[in-house]
Amino acid sequence: MLCVNLPVPMEYHGRMNRIWHLLRTTIGRKLIVALTGIVLILFVVVHISGNLTIYIGQSALNNYAHFLQSSPMLWIMRLAILAIVILHIALGVAVARENRLARQKTRHAGESWYLRLYQHRMIISGLVLLVFIAGHVIHLTLGVGVSEVFRLKDTSGYVDVYSRVVTAFQNAWIAWAYIAAMLFLAIHLKHTVRAVFQTLGFSRENYFAFFEFLSWLVTLAVVGGFISIPLSVQLDWLAVP
Ligand code: HEM
Questions:
Q1: 155 burial class (0-12, 13-18, 19+ CB within 10 angstroms)?
Q2: Are 165 and 113 in contact (CB under 8 A)?
Q3: By alpha-carbon position, which residue is closest to atom 40 of ligand 1?
Q4: How far, in Å, is the centroid of ligand 1 from the Cα of 121?
Q5: 55 and 225 in contact (C-beta within 8 Å)?
Q6: Which residue's alpha carbon is at the smallest distance from atom 2 of ligand 1?
Q7: Cystine design at 190: which of 219, 230, 231, 232 (Cβ 3.0–4.6 Å)?
Q8: pLDDT reported for residue 150
Q9: Spatial distance between the Cα atoms of 234 and 241, rounded to a whole number of angstroms
Q10: What domains does the chain contain, in order, with CATH numbers?
């Protein structure tokens, strides 16, 4: 077999070296967790903004879903989000482990269990979200559990995502499971928004109150929006027409 070694530009080696070096330092790993965290925050903000069109009506949500599903970028975006989630989890677990080891050196005897639980909140809420996202994609993207409405089309001939969502949340167990999962999203998001600012260097004392306010605002708006959908179906404010 003919084997040809193509010349690789020096600047490519330089860039790969820098990324590799970044991954090998604690601050580099924190930076990547923060940057991937920003992309995931943007993802949930865009996702809830799109989902809220459910309150405009059936065709608004279905048009929005059709716009996404017919995009030539759909699979590129899906694979990019998957890669970002994997990177965020892998480096997030490493950073949490390093923080724990650092804390062990300063740990006081008799530390309460709820303090320990609080210190592990990012790992716990992150793992719950991982299970949630896997279940959510199987449920609403693949249609497992809502097969009776999965193939429905609306009057424009678009996939009827509206009926899929409303039918799914008419099951009280599913609706309350989503609401419970959103509380873990709140824990994760609240910490992430603030941590992102700190890691990116905005940690001067006079900004603290502003970033605390901003992290509460983003968390309550996003999580409140997500929770409102299963809750509205359970309260019969949203129904299949
Ligand atoms: C009540 C809350 C939520 C509702 C009603 C909802 C609705 C939906 C629907 C209808 C789809 C399928 C779209 C389609 O196939 O056209 C979807 C996909 C998805 N959702 Fe959600 N979602 C909710 C919360 C969340 C949260 C909190 C996250 C992330 C933390 C999330 C992440 C995703 C992901 C990753 C997909 C797969 C995207 C794809 O199909 O490419 N969702 N969601």
A1: exposed
A2: no
A3: 141
A4: 23
A5: no
A6: 226
A7: 219
A8: 86
A9: 15
A10: 27-102+113-234 (1.20.1300.10)
